[in-house]
Write a sequence for this structure.
């Protein structure tokens, strides 16, 4: 394989002024963390005071003269100007970082987002329940974040009447997304892109040590030999179901065979 | 009225001093010991902001209560106090050290609450601790700061999330603490930093400088320090957690109570009690479990009733939607282990922009010593200044991808099989690499005044990346084995968990084992047939006694019913055994008309469906094969069985006494496709003796086609049947 020399020469430019330096990092994926934010600081030459939430567009001029969009979409979270140095340090992040701390005392009621018209029959009743995809959609809507098309569907539902969102819209959404085996991030079109944790892309860069500046062990501790997941189930409204009702889906237990041991 | 309080403390001034050796140019060159000092009075400030929350009490009256919303604490220090090594190094280099320059440490705490009728209850406290980069670098074994300027900016040193739950009815409080910490603040990170710095000290000047910047950046990446949980119950000492047997018994009792109260009609729906915690265990160690991590799943899915779009179940107009929370918890646990294992066995890398995927968690292939591993780009970082742009990530190990042409292979990351058994891979070289959304600069483009260039960029995802060299692999060899156990409420019947851990063998040249977190739909419904006395005949002949393995009495070729099934039987062990091979019944012992797969699964007592089974397959080319007892007479004949043993280079799979196993076969038999010879299972078996310590369970058929009626039964003709066969070492 021909080795491509590492060339870190590049010039970052922006829509808010000449860029002096910067550093950004994605949240590392971790248990229970489904939404990965990008955050960091960008130092701009000159004294500016962009409004919180305004977009910082970054581009990179590469060796050879090509231009590329910086692979993260950023918003200004805070601006600290330094008149002595005549520069401004922007605290920036993706839409998730910008909206992460948005907290309001809101409760998601299933009846406010009905998936069907409730039915009461002799065989049982079907009040609305909380579809977790809808809960995530509401949380994102409150934060002004739209989802990319083609995202994996969150098919889970909780058989409960309400879910408290006052713990933080994106905190709740992040938890739901993580427990569905997904992770999400703001993509190049500034929409939330969801992908599956256990399904990596089949294609990726092929790197030898010649293409790396450094390579070291991460140093994280060994994984546990056993993992226990505890979870709660809600059964609602099984108590209202008639004994005459016998569902035919795999979840029912009308089968009678056993091990022959009585 | 103000909604904040503010406190400031000014400490007594302190004097900090440092001695250094100053080089006086010659000739001759001489050194002089000099000293420098600075006095500094540190200050600390605490700003606490409050918010007013409204709630309705238990009488429905509106109440308000002030609570702490956030607290910001800052402490000032000076460069000389924070990093005397830098101070000394700058002086020795003849550079200004600015020891009295101000540095600010900042701690931000945010509090969250839920509203209850008793008032706001604190549910989460998140703390961010920021530290100046200069101060942070003080712990990284950096000795030479010549021409290195870290600035006065801060890094996020630590993030602590404390989640609190309480249940007043049982006077229980639970607290979960998750800590993320800059890698360089951990003992492991410091060790790595010291190792890197030892190398950088000997490097060329430019490399030392750029390497030090990179080191500081990489060391500021956050790593998870773990999860700590504490539970307090009431006024006394918290009782010990009930063991698994007690929990299982409790659930059985609950299930039995429910059945009794409902009389003779069948219980349906998941048997978990409302809001009662259940659990799923997954073991990844081969030598027992010395360490266990426990996680809560807050949003485990539930089953539910909904209006049907058609006539519904039994014509009721209703549809029972079954969703397995156990399966969801199992998948969640696998994802957690995948992350923890990948990070523990991963590599931290830095490179240029075009070598890292443009999306978080994108795939990266790393080759060393001829062996290629697949990794995920976790926690990507970007750092740039006038010198250029460096990109880094924690490359999280996914598994072994292959060998480059001509390589002999060497294990430089863990795999289930030796690296030498990997298939050969060839990377594609692209002469015009570019990341997604790259354009040719228009004439006269000035980065200092980019104008409206932004509208020229696209918004493609990682699929738009073109790397200098890339590789595509559909599957890899995993690093760990999963021994999956799922525990929940036991039932009087047994579900078959389809292929959570399937095993196969082939007589082809076997060169590798691959693990795939499969995405293909392998969802089977359990089909059950009541054994009309036939099963009892088999059961009576079991018990694990006798010295002759698998003595089979009677048996004829079975005429397969006119539908589609796969077929098998279950067993338990009273002593651990290791699988040696599998066999498939050859009617007439004249060769199999078609090839068959034999699978082994752990029986799931709770859930019949799993949508993404983990499969282990033996693979000659690196792709997933069906696991096959080949057609014809290629497989050796052992009695009435066409037998295939595991290859010698594949680790044996030990079955334990913990589980009930199912051995079964597919493809699926259909009347239309049933080949001549009726190879399938043995019919009219009248007696069966199993190897010692092995006990027969049940026989079963699994229906593959969802449009078939579950009223069909495979054993309607009263026939006892048996197969496929499993052989132990």
């Amino acid at each position: 394989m021909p080795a491509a020399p590492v060339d870190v020469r590049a010039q970052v430019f922006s829509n808010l002024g000449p860029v002096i330096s910067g550093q950004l990092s994605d949240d590392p994926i971790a248990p229970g963390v489904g939404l990965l934010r990008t955050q960091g600081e960008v130092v701009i030459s000159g004294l500016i005071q962009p409004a919180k939430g305004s977009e910082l567009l970054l581009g990179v001029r590469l060796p050879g003269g090509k231009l590329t969009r910086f692979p993260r979409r950023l918003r200004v979270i805070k601006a600290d100007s330094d008149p002595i140095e005549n520069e401004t340090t922007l605290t920036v992040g993706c839409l998730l970082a910008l909206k992460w701390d948005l907290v309001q005392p809101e409760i998601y009621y299933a009846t406010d987002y009905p998936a069907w018209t409730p039915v009461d029959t002799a065989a049982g009743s079907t009040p609305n329940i909380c579809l977790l995809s809808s809960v995530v959609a509401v949380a994102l809507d409150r934060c002004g974040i739209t989802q990319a098309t083609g995202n994996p569907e969150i098919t889970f539902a909780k058989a409960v009447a309400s879910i408290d969102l006052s713990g933080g819209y994106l905190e709740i959404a992040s938890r739901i997304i993580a427990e569905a085996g997904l992770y999400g991030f703001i993509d190049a079109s500034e929409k939330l892109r969801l992908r599956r944790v256990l399904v990596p892309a089949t294609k990726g860069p092929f790197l030898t040590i010649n293409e790396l500046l450094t390579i070291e062990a991460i140093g994280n501790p060994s994984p546990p030999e056993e993992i226990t997941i505890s979870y709660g189930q809600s059964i609602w409204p099984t108590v209202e179901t008639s004994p005459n009702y016998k569902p035919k889906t795999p979840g029912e237990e009308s089968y009678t065979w056993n091990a022959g041991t009585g | 009225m103000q909604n904040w309080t503010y406190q400031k403390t000014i400490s007594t001034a302190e004097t900090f001093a440092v001695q250094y050796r100053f080089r006086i140019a010659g000739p001759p060159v001489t050194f002089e010991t000099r000293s420098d000092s600075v006095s500094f009075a540190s200050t600390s400030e605490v700003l606490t902001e409050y918010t007013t929350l409204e709630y309705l009490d238990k009488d429905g009256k509106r109440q308000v209560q002030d609570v702490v919303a956030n607290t910001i604490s800052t402490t000032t220090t000076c460069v000389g106090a924070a990093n005397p090594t830098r101070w000394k190094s700058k002086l020795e280099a003849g550079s200004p050290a600015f020891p009295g320059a101000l540095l600010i440490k900042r701690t931000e705490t945010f509090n969250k609450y839920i509203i209850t009728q008793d008032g706001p209850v604190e549910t989460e406290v998140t703390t961010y601790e920021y530290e100046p980069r200069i101060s942070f670098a003080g712990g990284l074994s950096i000795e030479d700061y010549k021409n290195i300027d870290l600035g006065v900016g801060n890094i996020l040193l630590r993030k602590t999330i404390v989640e609190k739950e309480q249940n007043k009815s049982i006077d229980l409080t639970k607290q979960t603490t998750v800590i993320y910490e800059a890698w360089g603040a951990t003992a492991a990170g410091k060790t790595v930093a010291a190792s890197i710095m030892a190398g950088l000290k000997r490097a060329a000047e430019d490399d030392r400088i750029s390497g030090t910047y990179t080191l500081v950046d990489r060391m500021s990446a956050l790593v998870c320090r773990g999860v700590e949980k504490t539970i307090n119950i009431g006024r006394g000492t918290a009782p010990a957690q009930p063991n698994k047997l007690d929990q299982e018994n409790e659930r059985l009792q609950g299930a039995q109570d429910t059945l009794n109260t409902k009389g003779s009609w069948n219980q349906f729906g998941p048997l978990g009690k409302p809001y009662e915690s259940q659990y799923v265990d997954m073991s990844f160690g081969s030598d027992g479990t010395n360490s266990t991590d426990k996680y809560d799943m807050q949003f485990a899915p539930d089953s539910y009733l909904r209006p049907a779009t058609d006539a519904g179940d039994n014509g009721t107009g209703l549809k029972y939607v079954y969703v397995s929370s156990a399966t969801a918890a199992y998948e969640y646990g696998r994802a957690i282990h995948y992350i923890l294992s990948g990070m523990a066995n991963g590599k931290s890398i830095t490179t240029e922009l075009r070598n890292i995927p443009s999306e978080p968690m994108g795939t990266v292939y790393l080759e060393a010593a001829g062996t290629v591993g697949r990794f995920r780009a976790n926690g990507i970082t970007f750092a740039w200044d006038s010198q250029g742009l460096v990109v880094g990530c924690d490359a999280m190990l996914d598994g072994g991808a292959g060998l480059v042409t001509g390589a002999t292979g060497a294990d430089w990351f863990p795999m289930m099989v030796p690296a030498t058994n990997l298939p050969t891979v060839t990377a594609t070289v692209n002469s015009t690499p570019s990341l997604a959304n790259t354009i040719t600069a228009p004439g006269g483009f000035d980065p200092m005044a980019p104008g409206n260039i932004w509208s020229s960029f696209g918004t493609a995802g990682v699929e738009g990346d073109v790397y200098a060299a890339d590789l595509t692999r559909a599957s890899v060899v995993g690093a760990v084995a999963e021994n999956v156990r799922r525990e929940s409420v036991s039932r009087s019947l047994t579900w078959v968990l389809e292929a959570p851990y399937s095993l196969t063998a082939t007589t082809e040249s076997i060169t590798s084992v691959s693990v795939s977190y499969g995405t293909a739909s392998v969802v089977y419904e359990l089909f059950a047939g009541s054994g009309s006395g036939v099963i009892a005949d088999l059961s009576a002949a079991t018990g694990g006694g006798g010295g002759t393995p698998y003595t089979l009495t009677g048996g004829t070729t079975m005429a397969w019913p006119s539908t589609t099934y796969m077929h098998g039987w279950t067993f338990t062990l009273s002593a651990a055994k290791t699988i040696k091979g599998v066999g498939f019944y050859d009617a007439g012992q004249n060769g199999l008309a078609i090839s068959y797969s034999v699978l082994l699964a752990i029986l799931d007592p709770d859930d019949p469906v799993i949508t993404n089974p983990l499969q282990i397959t033996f693979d000659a080319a690196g792709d997933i094969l069906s696991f096959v007892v080949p057609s014809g007479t290629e497989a050796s004949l052992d009695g009435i069985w066409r037998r295939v043993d595991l290859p010698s280079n594949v680790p044996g799979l030990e079955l334990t006494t913990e589980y009930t196993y199912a051995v079964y076969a597919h493809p699926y038999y259909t009347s239309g496709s049933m080949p001549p010879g009726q190879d399938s299972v043995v019919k009219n078996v009248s007696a069966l003796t199993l190897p010692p310590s092995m006990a027969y369970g049940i026989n079963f058929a699994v229906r593959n086609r969802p449009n078939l009626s579950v009223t069909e039964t495979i054993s309607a003709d009263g026939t006892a049947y048996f197969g496929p066969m499993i052989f132990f070492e």
The CA atoms of residues 30 and 221 of chain A lie 13 Å apart. Chain A touches chain B through 145 residues (CB under 8 Å). The first strand of chain A starts at residue 11 and ends at 14. The two ends of chain A are 66 Å apart (CA to CA).
